[in-house]
Specification:
With 297 residues, the protein is an alpha/beta fold. It folds into two domains: 85 residues, Winged helix-like DNA-binding domain superfamily/Winged helix DNA-binding domain (Arc Repressor Mutant, subunit A); 207 residues, D-Maltodextrin-Binding Protein, domain 2 (3-Layer(aba) Sandwich). Helix content is 40%, strand content 23%. Strands 3, 4, 5, 6, 9, 10 and 11 form a seven-stranded mixed sheet that branches. The chain has a two-stranded antiparallel ribbon with strand order 1-2. A two-stranded parallel sheet has the order 7-8. Helix 7 links the parallel strand 7 and strand 8. The radius of gyration is 31 Å and the shape is rod-shaped. The two termini are 56 Å apart. One of its GO terms (cellular component) is protein-DNA complex.
């Protein structure tokens, strides 16, 4: 049995007339009748009651009509979806992000999803170091990450800069003041930091920021992920320096203070495997470029 047999059968079943079905199929009536007879022989069942005046489906024909319509409908959907995947209009897109889903990242994801309803976004929270590896190994398609970035394998561009703020337990004496804080006031405070191997750029910037202020952070606790870091700050384990993207998470147990005299910021970049990017990943990259601040249009 071939797909054309089902198409011929469906046409006759819909019209209940061999002549009209043949005209729709752009073939002559005798070959159509022969194809239907071959189909009946192959299946081993009569599909139509035929008289000189009428054609109607047998019970077996009614069943095959329902099944054949479903098969052809599924085939049409499959071919349409396959075509969309090939052109990057549909499919699954694995997206990594560091820290947490900031409002900036969410804007990009929402805009793309609104315009590509057939795309399934699969989100993975992972460190910048892990994203570099996952992108190179094609375990994720897109990464929102901080430097350093493997420029040999990955394509990337800058999206946002997030200034640093100090995250304090609300019960901390320094949380009583709402004015920008001098980092020298944090001397001797227990710092909570990410492991340098996971977020080298973020870690090094904070160390450099503190060193310029004349202090060396007393790192008492390392924690993977800014969500965990903020939970430890909320529990009173220590303090931390985080980005304003992380500070979008407002909790009663945490108080954020701007840093006096510092304009340092951590850059967020979008990266992809430029050597082996899928059509969908390439489409996402182009869509995300709209969100680059101050780009020439």
């Amino acid at each position: 049995m071939e797909l054309r047999h089902l198409r011929y059968f469906i046409a006759v079943a819909e019209h209940l007339h061999f002549g009209r079905a043949a005209k729709e199929l752009n073939i002559s009536q005798p070959p159509l009748s022969q194809q239907i007879a071959q189909l009946e022989e192959e299946i081993g069942a009569q599909l139509f009651y035929r008289t000189n005046r009428s054609v109607r489906l047998t019970p077996a024909g009614e069943h095959l009509f329902r099944e054949a319509k479903a098969i052809m409908g599924n085939l049409e959907r499959a071919t349409t979806q396959t075509r969309k995947i090939h052109t990057g209009e549909a499919g699954k897109l694995a997206v990594g992000y560091t820290g947490m889903l900031s409002s900036g990242i969410i804007r990009i994801l929402r805009s793309f999803k609104d315009k590509h309803s057939d795309v399934e976004l699969i989100l993975h929270r992972m460190s910048s170091a892990m994203q570099n590896e996952a992108l190179a190994e094609r375990r994720i398609d897109i990464g929102f990450l901080c430097p350093p970035i493997d420029g040999e394998t990955l394509g990337f561009f800058h999206l946002y800069d997030y200034p640093f703020v100090v995250a304090l337990p609300s019960s901390h004496p320094l949380a009583a003041d709402t004015s920008p804080i001098r980092l020298s006031e944090l001397k001797g405070e227990p710092f909570i930091m990410p492991p340098r191997g996971e977020e080298a750029g973020y870690f090094d910037q904070i160390i450099a920021l503190c060193n310029r202020a004349g202090i060396s952070p007393d790192i008492r606790q390392e924690a993977e992920g800014v969500t965990t870091i903020l939970s430890l700050v909320a529990a009173g384990i220590g303090i931390s320096i985080v980005s304003t993207a992380a500070a979008e998470t407002q909790r009663e147990e945490i108080f954020y203070r701007e840093i006096k005299g510092a304009d340092d910021a951590i850059g967020l970049y979008l990266a992809w495997n430029r050597q082996d990017a899928s059509p969908l990943a390439e489409r996402f990259v182009q869509a995300a470029k709209v969100f680059i601040p101050n780009q020439d249009k």
